[in-house]
Amino acid sequence: MSATMFFLVMAVITIAFLFNLVRSRRLREKYVALWMVVGLATIVLVLFPGLLASLARLVGVAVPSNLLFFLAILLLLGVCLQLSLEISLAEEKSRTLAEHVAILNLQMRELTGQSARITPAELEQPEDELEPSERLQQRDAVRPEPSPDHQRN
After folding, report:
1. Prediction pTM value
2. Whole-number mean pLDDT of the chain?
3. DSSP letters of 10-68?
4. Is 140's pLDDT higher than 90?
5. What is the rounded CA–CA span in Å between residue 34 and residue 30?
6. Which is nearest to 43 in space by CA: 7, 6, 84?
7. CA 45 to each of CA 7, 17, 61, 65: distance values in angstroms, whole numbers, following the listed order
8. pLDDT higher than 70, residue 119
9. Are 22 and 32 in contact (CB under 8 A)?
10. What are the Cα distances from residue 2, in Å, to 7, 48, 49, 65?
């Protein structure tokens, strides 16, 4: 099998694999676009091998493989930038959601008449799979009601 056929088959397999990932919803469309461009560019370069040499001469690069490596580095930098942006957005959303959960917990405590102050022991306790109302019912069932003669005035 010649190198041309090998790279052509690998590029087609890569594109088919990407379509399968998108179809099965394991990869979102916005991430697959860059990889589709890489697969299609690979097919074009395999089918027209003189294109890379012509492009290298046009840009002023002496060795065509150096141009290919440079383009690959640019691609990897683009991927890193895209992933960094996604991480920043996810971090912001996570922080916002944590703030909303804290506000909701405070409101829930105020509505149930509990102290709004959270003790360090409560912060270390792992969360149950129960709904917040079920958790409160379970906690209230365990805690005995204080008798009237033990309350301070």
Report:
1. 0.59
2. 81
3. HHHHHHHHHHHHHHTTSS-HHHHHHHHHHHHHHHHHHH-THHHHHHHHHHT-SSHHHHH
4. no
5. 8
6. 7
7. 10, 20, 17, 12
8. no
9. yes
10. 9, 15, 13, 19
What are 11's two structure tokens?
């590029």
**Cβ atoms of residues 35 and 72 within 8 Å:** no
Which pair of structure tokens corresponds to residue 143? 């805690």
Is the pLDDT confidence value at 104 over 90? yes
For residue 110, give both structure tokens: 């105020």
Which amino acid type is present at position 151?
Answer: Q
Across the range 58-64, mean pLDDT stands at 94
Task: Give the model's pLDDT for residue 133.
Answer: 60
Instruction: Look at the alpha carbons of 116, 119, 121, 126 in this order and tell me if their dihedral is positive or negative.
Output: positive
Q: Is pLDDT at 5 greater than 80 in this prediction?
A: yes
At 56, list the tokens: 């290298």
